[in-house]
Amino acid sequence: MKRFLFLTMFVFIALMAVVSVYQKEEKPLPQKLEQAMRLTRMSEYHDDDYGYVVRYPSFFEQTSDSLMDRGCCRFSFWQDSILIEQSVFVEQNTEGLSIDEAMKSYASDLHATKQRKGDDYFVLSGDLFNDTSHIPGRHYYMKFVQHRKLWFVQSLVYPKECEGAMNRVKRVIDGWEIW
Hints:
Oligomer: single chain
Largest sheet: 7 strands, antiparallel
């Protein structure tokens, strides 16, 4: 009986040692998120006020207070220290700015480091700022689409370490058309 207990204890300790040595390391959350982004389906939100459609990752949650403003919606993902927000809002183009004028103005206000424009839109991206102060480790990606006297704006705000995971969402934003 003593031999059996001793042998069982020895096998248990040896098994625990083998498991601890060969156990896979836990992937960091940004790597898990990148894999999830590749595999997830994209959900669609249809805005009743302006008729636009926005696509977002299915595991993002619609923020309930985002429906308070007409034409606005927001979807977010939050886990541990990672917060990602995708939102859409509509602004009046009261000054009647052209694409070039608006891109220059918004790029200055948002401290954009990258700019790109098309016939009826422009895209800005860079580090995130709050009023005049820099928010370390946070980035934004925004597409502004002009339609008559309105700007339809889709934005994505995310942590710098999740840059690779956001590529799919950025491609969806790049392809976003209002109608």
